[in-house]
User: Fold these one by one.
Assistant:
Number 1:
Amino acid sequence: MEKAVKDVADKYITEEGMEDLWNVWYSELHQGVSGLTLRVGKVLESTESDFQRIEVITNKDFGKLLVLYGSLMVADNDNNAYNEMLAHVPLFVHPAPRRVLIIGGGDCGCLTEMLKHPEVEKITMCEIDKKVVDTAKVHFPALTAGLADKRAELLFEDGKKYIENTDEKFDVIVADLSDPVGPAADLFQKPFHQTVFDRLKEDGIFVPQTESPYFNRKTVAALYNNLSNIFPIARLYTCFMPIYPSGYWSFTFASKQYDPLKDFDERRWEEQRPETQYYNGETHRAAFALPQFVKNMLGA
Ligand code: SPD
């Protein structure tokens, strides 16, 4: 008998270091050369809708994460900045935001945030992909809580068709979109923005998410340029979102009358103080202070 075999002959046989070999990583590349990597705890969903792949995974730092077409959308521990800045910035500037439209918004986080405003009488959310909302209801109940509010109307249809065909006029419209790819791409184009302008009341405000000022420079600049050509007031603002490319994200405040700083109703915010994690009077103002490289990019 060889010596190695003799040594283990009467021992309990086990292989050290194989107790837990789960070593699954989520990796999202930005333009193929750099990106964000997360160690996956569990894969809770992996499916496809008529429009896109849908995944829900878990990670120790971020909790549950929703991934659409391989791109991180929301996480338990990283959604507040995006949803709150998209929701509260226009709603604390408009003096009477009664009628609101959300284009997209499938995880419902923005809807739930906007419903914290008592002035809001009705919010229509027009989302093309019912499966995203159904998935969010199962895995992100805190984000979808607003669906139980009588003021929320949920439509499953193409936001572009909806806005082209509705006769309604809105005080505030937000575009809570994924990225300018696939079915959402039309919602980043100038003709859509012109239709949004036409569907706003005479003092209406439009806020779309406008991508990363670092990784999506051309897109950010083109969106800003288009919106500046349509709306009398267009101001870019930003927030910190670790799960999005570069962690630095932008929105554009496009408005017929109101200025996001001069007309910010800070007193109303002080009185109401909806429960938030990121938004407050200071972050509202600070979000419009832009680094020089972003100003240069916008020609602002
Ligand atoms: N690349 C990810 C960009 C996501 C921006 N919008 C997310 C919408 C979540 N409601």
Number 2:
Amino acid sequence: MNKVKKGVISCLLMGLLLCQLPAAEPEGDRLKDLAEPLGLFIGFSAPTNFYSMSDTIVYQEVAASEFNIVTPENAMKLDAICPTQNNYNFGPSDRLVQFARAHGMQVHGHTLIWYSAQPNWLVNIHSRDQLLSAMNNVIDVILGHFAGQILLWDVVNEAFNENGSYRSNFWLNVIGEDYIDHAFQYCRQADPAVKLIYNDYNIAEINQKSDGVYNMIESMIFRGIPIDGIGFQMHITDAGIDYQNFADNMARFAALGLEIYITEMDVRIPIIYTESDLNNQAEIYRQVIERCVDQPACKAIQFWGIPDKYSWITSVFPESGFPLLFDDDYNAKPAYYAVQQALACAGSVSTPVPRKLGDVNGDDTINIIDALLTAQFYVGLNPDGFIASRADVNCDGNIDILDALLIARHFVGLIDSFSYEH
Ligand code: G3I
């Protein structure tokens, strides 16, 4: 090989190496190291081709060092994973699950029953029985495939309109409102261990839409339909949200015994932005993270991507962009440092002494007797040996039938902790 050719090859290799060089590591602690002692998951969504992108080395390095949970942005949606009937494409999702396992991360399954990203073969089923059977079948196959490898599934996604009514979609139109009950029941049957979540946007504050979701979930719980948590997507604008309202909304969902997951957070700013826009964005992130760490039922904060350049935002909102914690070159933005600081400050507050919530007769077990004693107290009886301070398991200030129900669910293994227990 002559010198010129060698030089050209060296330059190309150097170029390749340069674009794969690790980004400058942010100052301070990594986010997952701050979140883990708080019992919090901190995560990101990954593109389907995360492993073959031109900058995959730096992408994977930042992902592995900062986060402890990952959501596939698109790879597990039904149109991607089951494009034609009985034909499953698990390749990209398996690759992500392997990546997560190799780096000690949890996986958040996203998403099964939705109005969007559904394959034509499903959308074209017009009989209730056939559609329920198809739903049951895809859930069995997909949850069976990933059993033991996924922490939680978004079972139903975005089923509500802004006014709190059910959103029209082929599931609703062909099956009826009980399509949601069936989806959760099929998931519990397919994988009894995985957590089951309802996920939606514009429901982080108390409004007509979150009222609709709240009423549905409350009814599901009273009717014995399995559901473990609520996902607040939190795709928000630079106007931010009402943070006290957000905290109040989390409190009412926590009082139902649910876990709360911030599932898809991003904060979009103008496409032509200033330093002040970046600082405003950082402040919005800080406020949201602070409210989450203050709420024991809030279990995860997941961002909808890592660097700004791979975000979905500008393709849908052309005047907005740059919604994430890292810039296009993987440098940490002010938003990153705001999240870091909110987590670090929470870690410096001493953890409350654990209470034996639910063990209302003080015999060191939480069983059906505790549920019965709580129910007796609720109906006005004053049972012997009843330790009232341990009965308000959802910490909403009342000892009522919901507490008895939660203790009973704990006894039969449907939940393994109470929302407010640290
Ligand atoms: O599948 C085709 C692929 O074959 C083709 O090569 C490619 C070329 O453009 O398009 C591919 O489909 C795109 C898909 O992303 C995968 O890249 C769709 O056109 C595009 O609409 C789709 O957008 C995703 C969108 O959900 C719809 O599924 C976004 O990336 C994703 O960020 C967005 O995420 C949603 C959550 O799932 C639910 N909550 C809201 C959030 C933002 O919309």
